[in-house]
Design a protein that fits this description.
Number of strands: 6
Shape: globular
Structural class: alpha+beta
Strand order of the largest sheet: 1-2-3-4-5-6
Radius of gyration: 20 Å
Oligomer: single chain
Length: 292
């Protein structure tokens, strides 16, 4: 699943690299975008089936409640992924000159179509099942982008992601990943999800506040050697939640006339910049000079 998502992001990023918003509908832009999205969707879902589902086959559709797993860090991953696919898709459609509301709705719709297709495949898999929790997180992610674009014509509350390697992954590489490329997606102990609030854009007051400065709230969890708390506790680990407070940078708010620089800032604005951070948890308060 992670490889297919990575392919989609590369596909959307390739088109976005050449993007500038257009006020006039441009068929020469729209048709290649539509074809690319259709082919990309087909290839991704087909490849996903071959990699993850074909070996064990498909069975009767069923539901699976995984809401209690990973202290809900995985649900934030679904939120983040759907938000970002919606962002890229909507902005690419704006580049083609599609009317703004249609571009926003179609972009969110494409993101939900892609994510829901994966959930449906999970529903027919004997190893998984359709998760209403995952589906809900996907809907909230698409709505998070759509609401802001309709209300403000921009994102002022920006979901971001950060990751650091932990000592837990080598203890259970099957679940938490074997090597950095797998741990990045599988080791939820090292993942932190953030909401960066652009202060100047939200306050809309004549204070001397840099247009790029954000107040960022983060969430993560630690000591999860297995998915459920009881399973980790049975192995001698005590999972706990972590909350973070920090400053952050809205990279898209940094002015630049260089198209390449603007594209790089746009693409990297989903990544949390390491800055001084305060962590709050059941173990007390901890300060990090730089946290990622």
């Amino acid at each position: 699943m992670k490889k297919s998502l990575y392919c989609i992001f590369l596909l959307l990023h390739f088109v976005r690299t050449h993007a500038q918003d257009s006020s006039t509908f441009n068929k020469k832009r729209f048709i290649p975008v539509a074809v690319t999205a259709g082919v990309g969707y087909t290839v991704a879902i087909g490849g996903l089936y071959q990699l993850w589902y074909k070996e064990n086959g498909l069975s009767t559709f069923r539901f699976f409640n995984d809401d209690a797993q990973w202290m809900q860090v995985d649900k934030l991953g679904h939120f983040m992924t759907t938000y970002q696919i919606s962002r890229y898709s909507s902005d690419i459609l704006l580049w083609t000159g599609t009317k703004r509301k249609k571009a926003i709705y179609y972009g969110a719709g494409f993101a939900l179509l892609f994510q829901t297709s994966i959930e449906v495949l999970d529903g027919f898999s004997p190893d998984y099942g359709f998760s209403w929790g995952d589906f809900t997180a996907n809907v909230v992610g698409a709505a998070g982008l759509t609401t802001q674009y309709l209300l403000w014509n921009e994102a002022r509350i920006i979901p971001k992601f950060s990751f650091h390697r932990t000592d837990l992954a080598p203890l259970n590489p099957e679940l938490l990943g074997d090597g950095l490329s797998q741990e990045l997606f599988k080791d939820y102990n090292g993942q932190t999800y953030w909401l960066a609030f652009n202060i100047e854009k939200l306050i809309q007051k004549d204070f001397f506040i840099p247009s790029w400065l954000c107040l960022s709230l983060g969430y993560g969890a630690e000591n999860m050697i297995r998915g459920r708390v009881s399973e980790s506790e049975a192995l001698g680990y005590s999972p706990y939640r972590q909350y973070y407070l920090s400053l952050d940078i809205d990279l898209q708010a940094i002015p630049s006339k260089n198209k390449v620089v603007r594209t790089v800032l746009y693409s990297l604005n989903m990544i949390r910049i390491p800055l001084p951070t305060v962590e709050f948890s059941e173990n007390g308060t901890r300060f990090y000079p730089f946290y990622f």
